[in-house]
């Protein structure tokens, strides 16, 4: 049994503190102080800092956390090799290599345990209702990574690296104005934000149903794009181009 604490950092980043049995890991600390305060409140001992990729807004607090706690900083995507499972104390993360936003992007997946659904920490690969920009300039690479995440169990909880949620669904409505599921999801999220509640986590099932980028290969999305004869990758690339201009 573990808990996940979601921390807002920098302008719109998310940092996560995962705790179990008095120990913790921190994922993607854009800055150190929010994580340090969370650890002080809980009394958990920090075992490691994990980073989904090397961009500064996901690593900026790493050195300070390491200096203050003596823990290691682990960036699995920084090397071409690496183990498919990363065990840190009681946490056994599957390291999913998901290049596309950057060459070194990975996601950390905690499989289901003790009756809880799995958790996946997706960095800048998969957002709630969206996906990361293609800094690698390769739609094929990102599409493959998104498909691998979409194949996870539907009840897997999704913890992304940024909060672009409203913008992503406002964009999705412009692409598919007649999609009632997307409109309902947008209104649900607006209500959560108005009430001061967190929109994180989503689930893989929710993203399959309403995330425009995961749906890029569907006949409905291709029709909405006016690209009925396009390949799945071509549909995805067009969506990403439109979102970049949104």
Task: Give a quick summary of the entry.
The chain is α+β, with helices and mostly antiparallel strands and 246 residues long.
**CA-based shape:** globular
Which H/E pattern describes the elements?
A: EEEHEHHEEEEEEEHEHHEHHH
Q: Helix share of residues?
A: 25-40%
Ends apart, CA distance between termini: 41 Å
List keywords for this structure.
9 helices, 36% helix, six-stranded mixed sheet, single chain, 246 residues, 13 strands, five-stranded mixed sheet, globular, Metallo-beta-lactamase, Chain A, alpha+beta
Describe this structure in words.
The structure is a single chain. 36% of the residues lie in helices and 24% in strands. The protein is of the alpha+beta class and 246 residues long. The strands form 3 sheets. It has a 6-stranded mixed β-sheet with strand order 6-7-8-9-12-13. A hairpin with an 8-residue loop joins strand 7 (91-97) and strand 8. It starts with a strand and ends with a helix. The protein has 9 helices and 13 strands. It has helices at 33-42, 56-59, 62-69, 139-150, 165-175, 180-194, 204-210, 219-225, 232-245; strands at residues 3-9, 13-20, 23-27, 45-50, 73-74, 85-88, 91-97, 106-110, 119-123, 126-127, 130-131, 157-160, 202-203. The protein has a single domain, classed as Metallo-beta-lactamase, Chain A, CATH 3.60.15.
